[in-house]
């Protein structure tokens, strides 16, 4: 999991815990992965249209079962998209931000154009494409 952006697009600093201490970014990655895994599992279990209910905690394939797009707290809104290939795109914004699903699709298209089609990129490695980072940063700033 790789994070892009900074405090300009997030209502709170991503690296500060509740008591104002810095926490490692790998802890943020684990927390975000656990949150998304749990929410995907919960929404699949609660899906009223599927007679076969998956057990809570059982991994789901991308596009399998019921999915969620966003949730809101009193301090932030998390918007989520998972591509058919399993790429997860997450935006954390102000709680009053509107629907960002089209923005997530646009970000995925940027990823395909600048990363997937880049012959120097090896899948599964951290993204080190300056053009992608710059374009993504400009786009995210334009929607915030």
Summarize, please.
Its main location: endoplasmic reticulum. The protein is of the alpha+beta class. It has three helices and three strands; from the N terminus they run αβββαα.
Question: How far is it from the N-terminal to the C-terminal residue, by CA?
Answer: 22 Å
Q: Percentage of helical residues?
A: 25-40%
Mean pLDDT: 78
Main structural class: alpha+beta
Return the string of H and E elements. HEEEHH
The domain tally reads: 1
**Would you identify the CATH architecture?**
2-Layer Sandwich
Sheet having the most strands = 3 strands, antiparallel
Strand content: 5-15%
Low-confidence stretches: 6-16
Q: Identify the strand order in the major beta sheet.
A: 1-2-3
Could you say which overall geometry the principal axes of the C-alpha atoms support? globular
* Total beta strands: 3
Radius of gyration (Å): 16 Å
Can you tell me the CATH class? Answer: Alpha Beta
Q: Would you give the CATH topology?
A: Beta-Lactamase
Can you tell me about this structure?
It contains three helices and three strands. α2 packs antiparallel against α3. Helices cover 36% and strands 10% of the residues. The longest helix is centred in the N-terminal third of the chain and has 22 residues, at 25-46. It is globular. The chain has a single domain (25-143), classed as Beta-Lactamase (2-Layer Sandwich), CATH 3.30.450.70. By secondary structure, the protein is α+β, with helices and mostly antiparallel strands. It has a three-stranded antiparallel beta sheet with strand order 1-2-3, with helices on one face. InterPro entries: Longin-like_dom_sf, TRAPPC. Its main location: endoplasmic reticulum. It is found in: Endoplasmic reticulum; Golgi apparatus, cis-Golgi network.
């Amino acid at each position: 999991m790789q994070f892009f952006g900074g405090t300009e697009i997030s209502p709170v600093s991503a690296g500060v815990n509740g008591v104002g201490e810095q926490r490692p970014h790998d802890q943020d990655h684990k927390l975000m992965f656990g949150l998304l895994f749990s929410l995907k599992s919960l929404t699949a279990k609660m899906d009223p249209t599927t007679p076969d209910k998956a057990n809570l905690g059982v991994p789901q394939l991308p596009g399998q079962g019921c999915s969620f797009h966003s949730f809101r707290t009193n301090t932030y809104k998390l918007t989520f998209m998972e591509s058919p290939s399993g790429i997860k795109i997450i935006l954390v914004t102000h709680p009053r931000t509107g629907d960002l699903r089209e923005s997530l699709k646009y970000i995925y298209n940027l990823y395909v154009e600048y990363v997937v089609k880049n012959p120097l990129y090896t899948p599964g490695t951290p993204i080190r494409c300056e053009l992608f980072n710059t374009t993504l940063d400009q786009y995210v700033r334009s929607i915030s």
